[in-house]
C-alpha cells in the first residue's frame, strides 16, 4: 500500500471518529441532571483501593500559590489544605511539603515524621528513602522507618526505591530493607 493511500485512510478514519464524537455530544438528553448523577455514582463507586483511600488536592491560596490537602474518594475533605505539596499515601503515611522541608503525615493530618528532608520516597515494607542536605549543599540519602529513625548510619550518594526486597544505592552496593549493606553481586 502506498503512503498516500495510508494518509487517505487515516484522514477518513479521523473524520468518521470526529463525526461520531460530535454527533454523540449533540444528542439532547431531557434528563441531564439525573444522567449526570447516575454517571457520577458509577465513578464514585469504582473501588480504586481496597482501603479508605485519600487523594491529594489543591486550592489556590492568597499570593498565587497552591495549598494541598487530602480528600476521600467521595470528595469529602479529610485533611484541610495547609501543605505546600502533597503526595499519595503509602503504607498509611504521605509525604507533604511544609515550610522547613518534607515530612510525613498520617491519614488524620497529624505530623508523624517532622519536615527535615529535602527529597523523599514512598514507604515500602515499613521503610522509605529520604535525602538531607548538609552545610555544603551535598545531598545524602538515608532509609528511615515509620518513626523517622535512620536505619543506615552512613549516608549514600544516591538511593533508589525498593524492588523485591532490595534497594540499589550509589556506593557500589545494595541494602536490604533494614539498611544493611549487601555484597555486590557480579
Describe the structure.
The chain has 2 domains: 67 residues, no CATH class; 69 residues, no CATH class. The termini are far apart. By secondary structure, the chain is of the alpha+beta class. It has a 4-stranded antiparallel β-sheet with strand order 4-5-6-7, with no helix packed on it. Strands 1-2-3 form a 3-stranded antiparallel β-sheet, with no helix packed on it. About 16% of the residues have low confidence. Helices cover 20% and strands 34% of the residues. The longest helix has 24 residues.
Features:
186 residues, alpha+beta, three-stranded antiparallel β-sheet
Q: N-to-C SSE series?
A: HHEEEEEEEEEEEEE
Count of discrete alpha- or pi-helical segments spanning 4 or more residues: 2
What is the end-to-end distance? 50 Å
Estimated structural class: alpha+beta
Give the low-pLDDT segments: 22-51
Number of domains: 2
Average residue pLDDT: 75
Q: What characteristic shape results from the CA principal axes?
A: globular
Proportion of helical residues: 10-25%
For the sheet with most strands, the description reads:
4 strands, antiparallel
Task: Count the beta strands.
Answer: 13
User: For the CA atoms, what is the radius of gyration?
Assistant: 24 Å
Q: How large a portion of the residues is in β-strands, by DSSP E?
A: 25-35%
Strand order of the largest sheet: 4-5-6-7
